[in-house]
């Protein structure tokens, strides 16, 4: 650290880096972005120029070798998360990694190992945990307001919301909506449930709609939208069992002929339940069923996430979304794909 500022390197200067990570760091008084890296050097240089950032490079190895960096945000395509996080950890830099953690469980475990070996802070960008409403539900769960949470239902259905660019290219993404948006829904709900150990998963994936020409719909766009590859699923559903007897059902789609839901999570406990989207607590008061809606100002979850990352670096405490959490979620995601391929329930160890 220099002048009490945590010096940040951004790896991958595409859409999420420019729309979320960089603006969130710029809002912090104790952080300074000192380097950016992108396969496309022109893009890195353009971002460096715009935000007055000292270094712009085109290789991960070059970025992590820069001395005056304390921490990095990994914002590349999914297939470079492991390479970037491991290189940064081995160079002694703290890591905030975009979701999903990796392409597969072996990569995720190698990332966790590198973080532990080098004693750095490793945090997963599970952004939905940092929404104001999520924090209310988590606090209530921790103070036992829901009792035993034994069942949950989660998902994110988009009617026509397939991202444009590398997302549909399995070699760069590792999967479709399961790994892209299902990761948010499943992680968030698992977090609310108190992170029980998953033991098995059964799932189906579909690629029924694929590329479409529907007009008047908006989509997330990677900065390069010239990819013509579409070899991922476009929807999935399934069921996860946990060691404590609890279970979670989920449904996700990039494209489906049904209603758009946004990310939703319903948890069902022995004392009360809660839903995100719409945000409601389902309880009982004086013998009557009572629904209530906590009032919270919306907050930018990326700002909260990055604030938490910086605080963990300063205090040395383990991030709320740890490498261990990332590995467990990766096991669920890959379990979903394995189950769909095999056509039966698979064990998660
Ligand atoms: N938390 C969220 O809600 C959220 C939302 C959108 C995207 N994301 C995640 O953010 C990441 C990036 O998505 P995006 O939409 O910004 O994509 P993008 O394509 O716009 O940006 C990725 C950038 O990384 C660069 N890149 C790829 N491989 C690289 C490598 N090996 N070295 C250096 N640069 C490399 C690309 O050139 C590109 O500029 C993905 O992992 C995605 O899942 C998270």
What does this structure look like?
This protein is an alpha/beta fold and 349 residues long. It folds into 2 domains: 115 residues, Rossmann fold, CATH 3.40.50; 192 residues, Dihydrodipicolinate Reductase, domain 2 (2-Layer Sandwich). 34% of the residues lie in helices and 25% in strands. The protein is built from 10 helices and 15 strands. The strands form 2 sheets. The chain has a 9-stranded mixed sheet with strand order 14-13-12-11-7-10-9-8-15. A hairpin with a 4-residue loop joins strand 9 and strand 10. Helix 1 packs across helix 9. The longest helix is centred in the C-terminal third of the chain and has 20 residues. The protein starts with 5 loop residues before the first strand and ends with a strand. The model has no long low-confidence stretch (mean pLDDT 97). The site of nicotinamide-adenine-dinucleotide (NAD) has 27 residues, from helix 1.
């Amino acid at each position: 650290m220099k002048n009490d500022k945590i010096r940040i390197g951004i790896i991958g200067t595409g859409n999420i880096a420019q729309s979320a990570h960089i603006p969130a760091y710029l809002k912090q008084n104790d952080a300074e972005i000192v380097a950016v890296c992108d396969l496309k050097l022109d893009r890195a240089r353009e971002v460096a120029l715009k935000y007055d950032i000292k270094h712009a490079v085109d290789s991960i190895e070059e970025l992590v070798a820069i001395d005056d960096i304390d921490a990095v945000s990994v914002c590349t395509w999914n297939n470079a998360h492991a390479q970037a996080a491991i290189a940064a950890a081995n160079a002694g830099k703290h890591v905030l990694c975009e979701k999903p953690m990796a392409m597969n469980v072996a990569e995720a475990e190698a990332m966790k190992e590198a973080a532990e070996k080098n004693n750095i802070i490793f945090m997963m960008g599970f952004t939905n945990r940092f929404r104001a409403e999520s924090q209310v539900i988590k606090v209530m769960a921790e103070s036992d307001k829901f009792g035993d949470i034994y069942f949950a239902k989660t998902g994110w259905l988009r009617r026509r919301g397939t991202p444009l660019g590398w997302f549909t290219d399995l070699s760069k993404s590792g999967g479709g909506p399961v790994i892209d948006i299902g990761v948010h829904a499943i992680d968030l709900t698992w977090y609310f449930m108190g992170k029980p150990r998953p033991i098995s998963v059964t799932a189906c994936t579909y690629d029924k709609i694929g590329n479409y020409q529907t007009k008047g719909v908006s989509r997330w766009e990677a900065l390069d939208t010239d990819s013509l590859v579409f070899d991922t699923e476009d929807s999935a559903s399934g069921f996860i069992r946990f060691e404590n007897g609890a279970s979670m059902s989920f449904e996700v789609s990039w494209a489906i002929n049904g209603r758009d839901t946004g990310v939703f999570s319903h948890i069902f406990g022995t004392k009360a339940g809660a839903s995100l989207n719409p945000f409601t607590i389902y309880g009982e008061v004086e013998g009557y069923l009572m629904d209530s809606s906590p009032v919270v100002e919306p907050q930018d979850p990326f700002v909260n996430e990055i604030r938490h990352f910086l605080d963990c670096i300063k205090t040395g405490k383990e991030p709320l979304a740890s490498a261990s959490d990332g590995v467990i979620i990766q096991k669920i995601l890959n379990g979903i794909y394995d189950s769909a391929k095999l056509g039966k329930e698979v064990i998660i160890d």
